[in-house]
Request: fold
Amino acid sequence: MAFCLRNTKRTSFWFHRNERGMSGSTRIYTRSGDDGTTGLVGGQRVSKRHLRIDCFGSIDECSSAIGLARRALVDHIERERIAALDAWLAWTQDALFNLGSDLATMPKDRREGMPRIAQPDVDALEAAIDRAQKDLEPLATFIHPGGSYAGGFLHLARTVCRRAERLMVALAADEPVEPVALKYVNRLSDALFVWARWVNHELDQPEHRWNAKSRPPSSP
Reply:
């Protein structure tokens, strides 16, 4: 996984890798996880079914879905407003990596200067949500994920983000989880929903509204 410590004999490996960049000689496979365990940043070995692993694995998955959305924006990146959304998504992926690495670190192993989610990150998301909503009609009913490729992928990222939040809440019942991290993923799922609506609006793609009285289509 992207946030795991790859060499448990060097407990500062992740921190130095993150601050200085990946070394060209870093080996991807280590065989240390063949027994079903993985390493946290402090060097502890835990089962891959551990709830903490589920948490930052879902954060990684959310970032991957955002990456798909960004790829879908490439064909429209010459448009200033689309480029601005892509910049927000790029920042979000960086923030998610910071969050994932923090979740992979027990409190006693945190070091000064290690990147972490902070209240200004939450504030930035709230401001971005407010700006994007100014371009959108208020919702009168529920909508289904879809629209443009970018919009669909952002809806996918939203659902993964919601799962990550649920897992983090469960983890927080037994182990330390930063309260601001929980606030961040909650706001991020809202932001991803609004950004999905916004990009569909920007690309003139209709929203698929929920129809409670929907019936199966007739046979062709």
